[in-house]
Amino acid sequence: MQFCPTCEVRLKKSEANSVLNCPKCGYTENEAKTQKKVEETTKPDLNVLDESDGKETLPTIQIECGKCGHNQAVWWMLQTRSADEPTTQFYRCIKCSYTWRNYA
Ligand SMILES: [Zn+2]
Ligand SMILES: [Zn+2]
What we know:
By secondary structure, the protein is mostly beta strands. It has strands at residues 12-14, 19-21, 28-30, 60-62, 72-78, 88-93, 99-102. The two termini are 49 Å apart.
């Protein structure tokens, strides 16, 4: 809750442009600048399993690597951020660590 610095009246929020407005003297304050840190950080979903992870407890599958042609890869499932999207299956070649996903 914010107050006008001159007349100490509670500022009213204007829905249209997220500006706080004093109904008495017309003072305005931009609300957007105070909310900057709320922005979400986007993370690339292919980096979830990193080489530095160390623990290779993932199941393996017979599948051909699209990069080096090796026929064994580990796989895991990952739910993307929006809940209405289907779960994506990821593969990673155990030889060259090439990672790809399966949309099927
Ligand atoms: Zn005021
Ligand atoms: Zn490979």
